[in-house]
From TrEMBL:
This is PspA/IM30 family protein. It comes from the Bacteria. Pfam families: PspA_IM30 (PF04012). PANTHER family: MEMBRANE-ASSOCIATED PROTEIN VIPP1, CHLOROPLASTIC (PTHR31088), PHAGE SHOCK PROTEIN A (PTHR31088:SF6). Keywords: Coiled coil. Belongs to the PspA/Vipp/IM30 family. Residues 132-166 form a coiled coil.
Length: 247
C-alpha cells in the first residue's frame, strides 16, 4: 500500500496538465519550484520503497542459494553414507550397512526438504524480480521526468528574465525617443528650435533696418547730385550772361 500510494502520487503529477497549472498560477516560477520539490520528494520516497523491495528480493535469492547449497551437501552426504553401507555389506557387516543406509535415508530426506524449499521460492523470486525490474524502469522514467521538469522550469525562468530585460530596454529606449513629444529630449529640442527662430527673426529685423538706412543714404546722395547739377547750370548761365554783356 505504501508503494502504491507513492507511485500513485507520481502518476498524478505526471498526468497533470502543466500548462494549465502554469496559466492559472499567480506566480508560475514559484509554482514550478514547488512542483520540482514535490516531485523530488516523491522520487526520494519511491527510491526508498524500491530499495526495500530489492532488499527483500536479495534475501529471497540468498535463502534460495542456501537451500540449493544445503540440498547439494545433503545429497553428497547421502551418497557417502550409501557407499559406506555398501562397503560394510560387502564385508558381511549387515548391521553396520543398515546403519549407514538409515543415515543415507536421513540425508536424502534433508535433501528433499531443501529442494522443496528451493523450488517453492523460485516462483516468488521470479515474480519479485519482475516487480523490481518494473520498479527500476518506473523510477528511471520518473527521474527523467524530473529532469524534464527542472529543464522546463529553468527554460521558463530564463525566458521570463529575458522578457523582463527586453521590456526594460524598450522602456529605456522610449524614454530617449526624440520622436516622442512627451520625452524630455523632444521638449528640449522644441525649446532650441524656438530660440533659433527668435534669433532668425532678430537677424531678419536687423537686416531690414540696415537696408532702410542704405536706401536713405542713396536718396541723400541722389539729392546732393541734383543740387550740384543745378548749381552748375546756374553757374554756366551766369557766365553766358557776363560774356554777352562784355560784347
Amino acid at each position: 500500500m505504501i508503494k502504491q500510494s507513492i507511485f500513485g502520487r507520481i502518476a498524478q503529477l505526471a498526468k497533470a496538465n502543466i500548462n494549465a497549472m502554469i496559466d492559472a498560477a499567480e506566480d508560475p516560477q514559484r509554482m514550478l519550484d514547488q512542483m520540482v520539490r514535490d516531485y523530488t520528494e516523491n522520487i526520494r520516497e519511491a527510491e526508498a520503497a524500491v530499495a526495500q523491495t530489492i532488499g527483500s528480493l536479495r534475501l529471497l535469492e540468498q535463502d534460495h542459494a542456501e537451500d540449493v547449497r544445503e540440498s547439494q551437501e545433503w545429497g553428497n552426504k547421502a551418497l557417502a553414507a550409501s557407499n559406506k553401507a555398501e562397503e560394510y555389506r560387502a564385508t558381511g557387516k549387515a548391521s553396520e550397512a543398515e546403519k549407514f543406509d538409515n543415515l543415507a535415508k536421513v540425508a536424502l530426506q534433508r535433501q528433499i526438504q531443501y529442494e522443496t524449499e528451493a523450488r517453492g521460492a523460485e516462483p516468488q523470486i521470479q515474480s519479485q524480480t519482475e516487480v523490481v525490474e518494473k520498479l527500476k524502469d518506473g523510477l528511471n522514467r520518473m527521474r527523467g521526468k524530473l529532469q524534464e521538469l527542472s529543464n522546463k522550469r529553468d527554460e521558463l525562468n530564463a525566458r521570463q528574465k529575458t522578457a523582463q530585460a527586453q521590456a526594460q530596454v524598450q522602456d529605456a529606449l522610449k524614454a530617449f525617443d526624440v520622436l516622442d513629444p512627451t520625452s524630455e529630449v523632444s521638449r528640449f529640442e522644441d525649446k532650441i528650435r524656438r530660440e533659433e527662430a527668435r534669433v532668425l527673426g532678430q537677424q531678419e529685423l536687423a537686416a531690414s533696418s540696415l537696408d532702410a538706412q542704405f536706401e536713405s543714404l542713396e536718396s541723400l546722395g541722389q539729392q546732393s547730385e541734383i543740387e550740384a547739377r543745378l548749381a552748375a547750370l546756374k553757374s554756366r548761365n551766369a557766365e553766358r550772361i557776363v560774356s554777352s554783356e562784355e560784347v
